[in-house]
């Protein structure tokens, strides 16, 4: 009720037109004045009564707090929104715990293996490569700063070593006892061959390149993240003059050719490279020249079209590395070459 409504109520009370309830209410208000004042009967008396009584009514009966601080409407959040929010928070917390737990395990596993197996440790403190020989007579060339852990004697079923840094391995062949190199969180497995293992100090990416024989390279299951495994990240088989770069961030392996491919003996079972082959050609079809290079380096070389293979080549390219040999051959037939994965493609319009 406001002041105007109160005035009209007093008028009806004076006119005798109030309901019994309104009459009772007005008489209660009159009692708030604590005097013997008679009920107003004229307009002037009613106005006077309103002037005196309304402040009292307002002070003693109306809710002051409600007038000063009107109630703010409550914004209700739908139930499904609250469920989605709770699920998002739970997922974020779970992922954080999993990531922390996974990484702490990944970084500790290498050290745990080294400590629990009580291995011998060799560190190259020199500024030049240092050669050591393992119990099975395998040779390891440690680059400066590299560190190798290995047992005093290998088990019969397998030979295992742990590498930090870069090293070249020439492993004594033993078909009954595979040789394993654990470096960072990948494993290089061989029977008897020679290969490099290098770790990028900045990115921790690992590169394995093969000089002779075959090697298998894959993630160490005890340290890798099994959830991010894909067909591309399960590992690769490398042949001579091939290398793989393992990306530590995404767990993928990228295969390509080594920076300087070396010629190998014609018999692929041989484990030695050759220093020089007689690459002298006289009016020889390009297809024959490329076949000689394939056999020498054990690298597949393909032409973009058959006409390229029919072109003739004359020249002496012995003593050159593979990429220089390809440059000379391609210039003679106005072609180009590019490395695609572990193969070489010859491109041209002939």
UniProtKB/TrEMBL annotation:
Every Protein FecR C-terminal domain range: 279-346
Gene3D superfamilies: 2.60.120.1440, 3.55.50.30
Pfam families: FecR, FecR_C
Membrane-spanning intervals of the chain: 79-101
InterPro entries associated with the record: FecR, FecR_C, Ferrdict_sens_TM
Listed GO MF terms: sigma factor antagonist activity
Domain of life: Bacteria
Boundaries of every FecR protein domain copy: 131-215
Sorted UniProt keywords: Membrane, Transmembrane, Transmembrane helix
Protein name stated in the entry: FecR family protein
Organism: Paraflavitalea soli
